[in-house]
Amino acid sequence: MLKKELIQELKERLNKRLEQLRETKAGLIESRESDGKSSAGDKYETGVEMIQQEMERTQGQIDQTEKQKEVLSRISLTPNTIIGDGSLVLTDKASYFIGIPFGELKLATGNVYCISTASPIGELLTGAQVGETVTFRDQVIKIVEIK
User: Where are the beta strands (DSSP E) in 5-138?
Assistant: First the structure.
């Protein structure tokens, strides 16, 4: 599994997520504008407020996804000897990409858990080297390779 391919796949999935979020936001704007042409009163105000709250949530998700893309663009493809941001870590239990919190990424070459250094397992792995072990949820995890 190559770090370059993993980062490319993450970028594609983030772009897809951004596209979906922007479509959702456009639909909400359209819905808010059409509600504005309907009846007046409390029912109207409540509907508009709910749409506005959903738009703000969607905008927050857009902002977060754009930040994740920015973080990915700054990650070096140079292999690390000590685990930190940008490390692709292969262990005897699972593979982890330390960079952005994206969750499990299922690839043809295997599954990778995309996590940040702030996650519980990310905190344990950060600073470790090949051959070392960490204990997470009563499981001993051996670091096999860092890319």
Answer: 88-91, 95-98, 103-107, 110-115, 133-136
Measure CA 145 to chain center. 23
* DSSP characters over 107-134: ETTEEEEEE-TTSHHHHHHTT--TT-EE
One-letter identity of residue 100: I
Interval 3-49: pLDDT, tens: 999 999 999 999 999 999 999 999 999 988 876 655 555 666 787 88
Residue 109 tokens, joined: 């070459």
pTM, two decimals, is 0.86
For residues 124 and 143, the answer to whether their CB atoms sit within 8 Å is no
